[in-house]
């Protein structure tokens, strides 16, 4: 069995504010260590359960956060940026399932460090359905027929995931108290839970269906200010909805929509005020 593991940072237990997830802040090295440890618990449990190959994709910020010399020696790591498919780089139809850990809830919702790609996004929609990073990444997996069998993070991403994917295994390693505070499991307890839940998810892998994306999806991104919308609108094929900060793009498939989202959000970050 070949397994795909996408590892974000904001949903790791103990990481509660930007000082843990921003490479220029004082708790970042601790954040890297905790992130790598949680990934290792999942990897070790998956190999123990019979997986033969595990590809890990570092999925936070510049995507070079996981400490490779501390990563499980049998896992393979996709590290660095630029990646054409960002948090889902390297995924194809050869994988039996995908697991997302360190994930967080979507922009404008409750949850520890909730956001969608950049902090200037208020809402993101596919065919008028509001989704975040979890949902968009699950759609991309669904394009290849790969089910997302488990997500780990706080209690709010667990709710978001269950609403999209029936039978998904959710692993709550912390409970949000505010956007920058959480009731966290210790690394020892979160590790034990991740191992148990990984084993459970792999046992019921055939009970989880891929999240099939729509055909010719319409991507809509609502930005925090008009300057961000103007920058995103530089992508050919987009337009700004009148009297809003919503930029739309009709894609031929979810892969094109995903790459359009990456380009639009990267351009929007050029606006200097959120």
Features:
aminopeptidase activity; 5-stranded antiparallel β-sheet; Gyrase A, domain 2; 24% strand; DppA_N; metal-binding; Rossmann fold; 31% helix; 274 residues; Peptidase_M55; 2 domains; alpha/beta; Peptidase_M55_sf
Walkthrough of the structure:
With 274 residues, the chain is of the alpha/beta class. It folds into two domains: 2-114 and 133-207, Dipeptide transport protein (Rossmann fold), CATH 3.40.50.10780; 218-269, Dipeptide transport protein (Gyrase A, domain 2), CATH 3.30.1360.130. The protein has seven helices and twelve strands. The strands form two sheets. Strands 3-2-1-4-7-8-9 form a seven-stranded mixed β-sheet, with helices on both faces. It has a five-stranded antiparallel β-sheet with strand order 6-5-10-12-11. The radius of gyration is 18 Å and the shape is globular. The relative contact order is 0.16.
CATH class designation of the largest domain: Alpha Beta
Strand order of the largest sheet: 3-2-1-4-7-8-9
Number of strands: 12
Which regions are unreliable across 5 or more consecutive residues at pLDDT < 50?
A: none
Number of domains: 2
Main β-sheet, in a few words? Answer: 7 strands, mixed
Give the end-to-end Cα distance, rounded to a whole number of Å: 44 Å
Structural class, from helix and strand content?
alpha/beta
Strand composition percent: 15-25%
Find the CATH topology of the largest domain. Answer: Rossmann fold
Approximately how much helix is present in the residues? 25-40%
Number of helical runs?
7
What is the correct CATH architecture of the largest domain? 3-Layer(aba) Sandwich
What spatial form do the alpha-carbon principal axes imply?
globular
Q: What integer value in Å does the Rg equal? A: 18 Å
CATH superfamily of the largest domain, called what? Answer: Dipeptide transport protein
One letter per element, helices H and strands E, the order comes to EHHEEEEEHEHEEHEHEEH
User: Roughly what is the average pLDDT, rounded to an integer?
Assistant: 98
